[in-house]
Amino acid sequence: MRTISETIKNYSKKEHHNYYLYGDDIFLEKFFINQICKKFIKDDGSKILYHFNVDNEESFLNDIHSNSLFDSKKIIICWGINRLSKNAQKDFISYVKSNPSEDISLIIISPDFRIKNKFVSELSSLMNAVDIRTPFPNKMKNWVRYYAKSNKFSMTDELISFYIDCYGDSL
After folding, report:
1. Degrees (nearest 5) of the Cα angle 44, 48, 54?
2. Interhelix angle 157-167/140-150, nearest 10 degrees
3. Residue 1 has pLDDT above 70, yes or no
4. Taking the model in full, what pTM does it have?
5. In this structure, are residues 120 and 92 in contact, taking their beta carbons and an 8 Å threshold?
């Protein structure tokens, strides 16, 4: 499993952009999605959200199987993927295995590390697994340094240490 910074730094336009996010840090989830949007769809494309507690799985399956006539890219972001029916799970796994469209990026979000079933295990092994948990204290400086750099500002080590001392992992 890679970190957010490793995944973004190693982003390549020539690979399929399917990500399985593990963790429950909402800020890091949003940060990662925004970084991928900047690189993948830029200003020309769409972002589609699915919450399978609420949304229809047929719409989701139609979205992943349909290609745009105008080469428009789209990012499909999904929460609650375990709630797909068995048939939808098989269809989705088949889609991910079959070298999906280069115009679609999938981001699957699993806030609970404890969910381990055959579907989740297979899906996460087929996608780029990314850790979006709050960084451990010994990794916090690196994370703050990366975040500052990605937002085009710099911070001294002393200032980073000050913020970490004051705010801890809620930085």
Report:
1. 170
2. 120
3. yes
4. 0.83
5. no
